[in-house]
Amino acid sequence: MATNNDRKLWEERAQKLKRKRMGQDTVKGDKAGAVGSHILAERERTVQRLSSVATGKAMKFNKMGPQEFVAYPFDELTIENLIQACSAHFRDELLDNQRCDILQSQDGPSCSKLSHIKSYKVIYVRFITNVNQASISIRKYFDKMKMPPRSPLSSMNVLNSSAVSTPSKSIKLQIPQKQKPVQTTQYPKSLSISNMLQFGTAITKMQNPPVEIELQEIDVSAMKWSYPTSKRFSISETPLTKGGFREVSEAIDVDTKKKFVVKTFLPEVFKVMEEVNTVIPLNKESEESLSKKAIQAHALAKNVTDSLKKLCFNNNLMDDFGEFFTYNKAYLGSKVMHGGEKKIVMVEEYVDGEFIKFINNDGKIIHGQPKDLDRLLKAQCLAHYSLVKSGQRFMIVDIQGSGYTLYDPEIATTGDAIENERLNFNLGNLSKAAIDLFIIAHVCNRFCKLVGLEQPPSSKIDLSK
């Protein structure tokens, strides 16, 4: 029969096990314990992803994107469960051989147990590759021996020292067995015959060193720019293409290996502005202001495009409309040049595929191949919808892209292209002339009618607004 002392001891052990399960034994104080309870109660945790390598003079791990809520479906708070939850959340962005590492802060170090985590308010994680299997075996070996690893020199000095007079037990060293090679599921990239034959000559081309770029994103609803986050890119020296206003170069995110494009305004743009500086004073339009307005136009076009999709969703028209156009995110970037000055750039996700333009920035409708007819009709519907959505104040033009992913839009306004000695939107704003040209040529198609748009006679459109 159990005594009162036995029951009290059992209850204390049960409470201790409960506190450990809830993460309350990791830090002192009721406040810290409540955080552990919150993780299990809310089933989620705020996570900040960091770069895999510390950079800069301060040797900090840079933030990669905003903080995110990560689902935590486990009933026990452990390092292993936190790693599993974060790995599942970011799985679509990781390489096959990357693993999650929890850091104490942006300065490090890695956390191997819950007591290492200073605060559960934000969990800092990074994803790293090329884990050294030998170092793991050595660490497990010393953990088993319950003694810290020593360098070979310090170990020899201790073992051979005649000053050590205290008798000690002999230790039988168990050398870890050689581990079996890890099977990999990664396979080499397939090469074309022409690429294979290039290996017959010495290849001199080298990968460009990484460049750190601070990125900002425009919040359309708040009308504010986000706090800058830093990413490292390897940027191609040879541009992909040059347009009328901008030069486009390919870039690779060093940490995620994703492809981006980096865009900069051509020097010719500012030469043209110098010639018309009686209308646009140079001190009111800069490379930064032009870049900001280009990103803002991109974000506005994305918002209107998403609004059209939402309209179809709310009215059960998704199946009838079919695939929708979309714009990827675009960022304002600032990179430090060799001389220390900052260069303003625009950064967007790379879009692969065949480039097609449906509507020019002057409002001209471009008729292409029959296979592209649906996309052409949807592009006209999008331009028409933007005019109605804006209360006949602006229209999305320069509708172009690959597949159903669009990029580099322009906004044509019904007002003047230059207002208060500043450009209204950007250099491609051909204002009333572009809108009028589109309206004259546009005939409402089945997609316009599906979403409730009516043919806009040019006589009924007040282009003076």
Number of helices: 12
Task: Supply Rg.
Answer: 30 Å
Q: What is the helical fraction, as a range of percent?
A: 25-40%
Distance between the termini: 91 Å
What percent strand? 15-25%
User: Major sheet: size, sense and barrel closure?
Assistant: 6 strands, antiparallel, barrel
Q: pLDDT below 50 for ≥5 consecutive residues: which ranges?
A: 25-35, 131-142, 144-173
Mean pLDDT, all residues: 79
Biggest sheet: strand arrangement: 5-8-10-11-14-13
Shape: globular
Structural class: alpha+beta
How many DSSP-defined strands? 21
Give a structural overview.
Helix 8 crosses helix 10. The chain has a 6-stranded antiparallel β-barrel with strand order 5-8-10-11-14-13. A 4-stranded mixed beta sheet has the order 2-1-4-3. It has a 4-stranded mixed beta sheet with strand order 12-18-17-15. Mean pLDDT is 79; it is low at 25-35, 131-142 and 144-173. The protein has 12 helices and 21 strands. The chain has 465 residues and is of the alpha+beta class. The protein is 31% helix and 20% strand.
Summarize the structure.
The protein is α+β, with helices and mostly antiparallel strands and 465 residues long. Helix content is 31%, strand content 20%. It is globular, with a radius of gyration of 30 Å.
Strand and helix map with partners:
Layout: H1 4-21, H2 30-42, E1 44-49, E2 68-71, H3 79-89, E3 99-103, E4 123-128, H4 133-145, H5 152-160, H6 193-198, E5 211-216, E6 218-219, E7 224-225, E8 229-235, E9 241-242, E10 246-253, E11 259-265, H7 267-275, H8 287-314, H9 318-321, E12 326-327, E13 330-336, E14 342-349, E15 355-359, H10 373-389, E16 394-397, E17 399-402, E18 405-406, E19 410-413, E20 418-419, E21 422-423, H11 431-441, H12 446-450
